[in-house]
Specification:
Number of strands: 2
Shape: globular
Order of helices and strands: EHHHHHHHEH
Strand content: under 5%
Number of helices: 8
Distance between the termini: 32 Å
Keywords: Membrane, Transmembrane, Transmembrane helix
Radius of gyration: 20 Å
Largest sheet: 2 strands, parallel
Strand order of the largest sheet: 1-2
Number of domains: 1
Low-confidence stretches: none
């Protein structure tokens, strides 16, 4: 794909551009809700609103819809990228498709793990530990896929695409540093600022998709119209 160094931005229709922006807003709002509600839900302090929300927050359907909506918004952005890469590569679109599949698989495993942990009548340690091992494997596979995607953007394109590729690379490094920092804090501190950690990790996740979004621009014909 080295012949594509002259491509500085992927051209898409104005409708697709608006849909990508809506998907970004969806990711941001859903992650913010998830990040704020999760620490409050596990808090020991009494709150009338939380007491009323407990049946909903413990609902399997709620977690399925919440995580599914986040993955759907993320998958849409990756699918637009997959279509944009089609004219330039034979294998990159298939890679993006595999990326979307891994996101969906990770979402399903995460929901199953949450269900088993929230079910007080379920004490099958083997199942929970197996799910957590599978979650860890999918996590590292997704991290590897992010780095491959970044390499595609950096080494095969120019201009805005390459610049955003470097930003994505920096964000991935920051995410790894944050992971190591969080592990150290968990080991050394008894009380954790979970809300801060959730918001920070969610912000990093959102920024990854934001800088993919910045690789696109409305085609000149539609911009003039």
């Amino acid at each position: 794909m080295n012949k594509n160094n002259g491509i500085s931005a992927f051209k898409i229709s104005q409708t697709q551009h608006k849909r990508m922006k809506m998907a970004l807003w969806g990711i941001g709002i859903l992650l913010a809700f998830q990040s704020i509600m999760d620490p409050l839900f596990h808090s020991s302090s009494y709150n009338v609103v939380l007491v009323l929300l407990v049946p909903i927050l413990k609902s399997k359907v709620f977690w399925l819809l919440l995580n599914g909506a986040i993955v759907a918004c993320s998958g849409y952005i990756l699918n637009v990228l997959r279509v944009a890469l089609k004219p330039f590569s034979k294998w990159a679109p298939w890679f993006c498709l595999a990326f979307i599949f891994m996101l969906a698989l990770s979402c399903i495993l995460n929901i199953m793990n949450t269900w088993y942990i929230m079910n007080s009548n379920f004490n099958e340690f083997t199942m929970v530990s197996t799910l957590q091992m599978m979650l860890m494997c999918t996590y590292w596979m997704l991290q590897g896929m992010w780095f491959v995607l970044v390499c595609i953007l950096i080494f095969n394109f120019s201009g805005r695409i390459r610049e955003n590729g470097w930003v994505l690379f920096a964000l991935l490094l920051i995410e790894k540093v944050c992971d190591l920092l969080f592990i150290r804090v968990i080991v050394t501190l008894a009380s954790m600022p979970w809300l801060f950690i959730n918001l920070l990790t969610s912000s990093l996740y959102l920024l990854l998709y934001y800088f993919i979004y910045r690789c696109f621009e409305v085609s000149n014909d539609e911009a003039i119209a």
